[in-house]
Design brief:
Order of helices and strands: HEHEEEHEEEHHE
Helix content: 25-40%
């Protein structure tokens, strides 16, 4: 897996060449899809979501490759395609969550039953070093560190990012237990 992460690190897209990311200020969003909806594929749906970010005041600074994994917790659901981006935005955490929800809605996201297949799932993983219950928004995302389909893609673009509760992305990826079958698309 380390080889895949090292090779995939070249996939990161940095909008300011030569300027290092300040990982203490990183705003991290995870994307997922296992219902292509009106798009030809989940890849196309996720790419369309990323294209929408800029018009919503969210600039992608770095992005991972797409990772495939079985659906969780029900592996009989369609498999997921996931990825992670680091963004810059003027939105505060609550406004960013509202914007992400609006994008999900525009992409046909239905909130029927918990963990049901979805056309688009956007999760705010971290907002800088914000930690704890921020007026009903828990940061960092309370289950991100245990999910390989989040920590694997994050380790591609920011292996040294440290979870506020401890542990670098590269190590958390190795320790993740949920989605242990997750692998980058080749």
């Amino acid at each position: 897996m380390d080889t895949a992460v090292n090779e995939a690190a070249d996939l990161a897209v940095i909008d300011e060449p030569g300027v290092a990311l300040d990982l203490d200020q990183a705003v991290i969003i995870a994307l997922g899809c296992n219902d292509k909806g009106v798009w030809a594929s989940c890849t196309e749906a996720l790419e369309a979501a990323l294209a929408r970010f800029r018009s919503e005041g969210i600039d992608v600074v770095a992005r991972s490759s797409w990772w495939r994994s079985q659906a969780w917790p029900d592996p009989t659901d369609p498999p997921f395609l996931n990825g992670v981006v680091i963004v810059r935005t003027a939105h505060d955490p609550h406004a960013l969550m509202q914007t992400l929800g609006r994008i999900e809605d525009a992409f046909g996201r239905q909130r029927s039953t918990r963990n049901a297949p979805r056309t688009l799932d956007l999760d705010l993983i971290a907002y800088g070093r914000e930690q704890g219950d921020c007026a009903g928004l828990i940061l960092p995302h309370p289950r991100a560190a245990e999910r390989l389909f989040v920590m694997g893609p994050l380790a591609e673009i920011a292996p040294e990012w440290v979870h506020p509760a401890g542990g670098a992305a590269a190590q958390l990826m190795k320790d993740a237990v949920v989605g242990s079958d997750a692998r980058p698309l080749v």
